[in-house]
Amino acid sequence: MGAAIGYAPGSLARYADWHRATAPRLDDEASPFARLLGERWLFLPPATRRRFLRKIAPGACVSYLGEVAECRMSLAGRVLAQVARLIGGPLPLGTDIGVSASVSVTADAEGQGQYWTRQYGRAQGFPQVIHSAKRFAGPTGIEEYLGLGVGIALRLEEAGGALLFVGDHYFLKLGRLRMKLPDWAMPGRLTVGHMDIGGGRFVFSLDLVHPLLGGLVHQLCVFADPAE
Hints:
It is built from three helices and eleven strands. The protein has about 230 residues and is mainly β.
């Protein structure tokens, strides 16, 4: 006799009307991204604005699928990526291109933060999975938490129709204690870009540049919008 499957026949009928929770779009004035960017918000393409106007309710998840198109790392960048595994591995660990990429975004119950899960395929082995949390808080209005209390305060900028998340400073947060980390101890200037390329597609880029060592990491991924 086979093992019990854990539910009685017919008990799953209660889920017949289940539907995935939606992520409706906010008005411009209600979006924290629009508020932080100010008048430059209207310089962004409509498709970019629509992506960042989504209100992700509890139970909802917005997912984007694509592939890694470019990835370069210097020797120092490779070493840094390995060391950064101590705080969750926020940097790519390899330079494989033409592999799958996905981003899933959920939100906390208060709507003050978003959880980002990025998955990058590899030519061999399991994909790399990166977790981070963005909160609309701190001196710049938006921060990204990486792991073990380490985070980065970001500034929103617009350049040539691209939405940029530019690193302002790194910090360590333990409970109520928040300490800004000195620039000399940090890996360099982080810039994350979002550029619409039409047809329901966009480019996500990540660049980490050290003031003395130059470019450490460059990654560029192409994604498509989810079906409505």
